[in-house]
Amino acid sequence: MSLLNNESDSGSGTSSTESLSLAKKLFDEPLEEEDFYDETNNNLIEACAIHVPMIISTLSVERKLPHGGSKFGRVYTRRDRKKRHDIIFSDYFIGDQSKYTPDTFRRRFRMNIDLFKRILQAVEGYGNYFTQKVDAVGNMGLSPLQKVVAAVRMLAYGCSADSLDEYVQIGESTAIESLKKFCDAIIGLFEKQYLRKPNKSDISILLADGESRGFPGMLGSLDCMHWHWENCPTAWHGTHTNGFKKVPTLILEIVAGHNLWIWHAFFGMAGTNNDVNVLDRSPLFDDIVNDIAPACEFIVNGHQYNMGYYLCDGIYPKYATLVQTISQPCSMKEKLFAKRQESIRKDVERAFGVLQSRWRIVKGPARMWSATDLGKIMKTCIILHNMIIEDECNQGINPENWQPDKEEVPQNITLEHDFTFLMSMMNIRMKQIQSKSTHIDLKRDLINHLWELYGSNHVD
């Protein structure tokens, strides 16, 4: 009776009143006629069929809570955030009095302590997430140091968010959120500088490095790697699982230099694609096609070329901008070329190895559900990788030489807005990139050039 009254209050007044009158009539009056009994019984069944599902659904549906945070019945974990902040600070950040040495810090955080402080200071000023706040009862929340330590540890070790609770005193959902916010901050603050396309100054340094190694015009080495996506949606397994890896993967394409600086990164293609498919979708040659790439001119064996090239493996097409090895060399010249090309192309393999060793999160299975989040994590690891390369001055290169130039105002440039003309020029430049004849000429010149440099010392 009370349930029916509640239903009446919630907006079913007419039907509820009819049900009450039928029930009262059923219990208060004797059943004298069979027709009346059948009619009353049918009405009661109809009323129950209407109201019982409504009552059950109202009682069974709970209010959906947002992901993370406390909810009724959950055990409260008392975390002494202030004390833990002081412990972390005394472990690493009080100079000679620190519990652990700078070498220990570098091993655990993958970077020198000065670079970490620089990142911490920059991230703290990016938005307000990393600003320390006071909670509802007046207690200080997590410090920026604790959030950044949690994020960097997850990137460095590839550990679960829950494993950080004991040392950092941070909840699992908060650790995951800190990682995402940290990635957003790193990309927003440092992508323009540390994941930039080579400018005029960069290209001159890359060309000089390539020429010193016997490959004039070389801008780096190109290759792809797969990242196992453990939590790939089941419906996507068919498009992300290839026959070689046997598990869902996402593909990363990079160009790396001699000092392991990553100049180009393209991530997110499904694992069923091969390197050629990834190259077709990659923006690697977009600047050349759009005629906005810095000039790149060089001479090999007495012949001049106006487009730089990348060393790659045999799966890539024979473009003017790609130089592969010779899989079955016949002459001594070809054997020398294959040996040198395969040796120098290891730059990109070394870059993958260092990236995965330094940031274990990209070596193990990816546990995020969103491909967008994984893309941000990968980009963050690459940016941090380049920052560490610069900070440690690998190969004796002065980091100042790798800084982007100031804005240069191009002179005497005529803008062309004719669509037909623009498309024709883009097609011409694309054909130049894909020119097989230029590729053959360039490889022949490189073979002869290397033989002149190293042929006298070559032993089969």
UniProtKB/TrEMBL annotation:
<protein>
    <recommendedName>
        <fullName>Nuclease HARBI1</fullName>
    </recommendedName>
</protein>
<dbReference type="InterPro" id="IPR006912">
    <property type="entry name" value="Harbinger_derived_prot"/>
</dbReference>
<dbReference type="Pfam" id="PF04827">
    <property type="entry name" value="Plant_tran"/>
</dbReference>
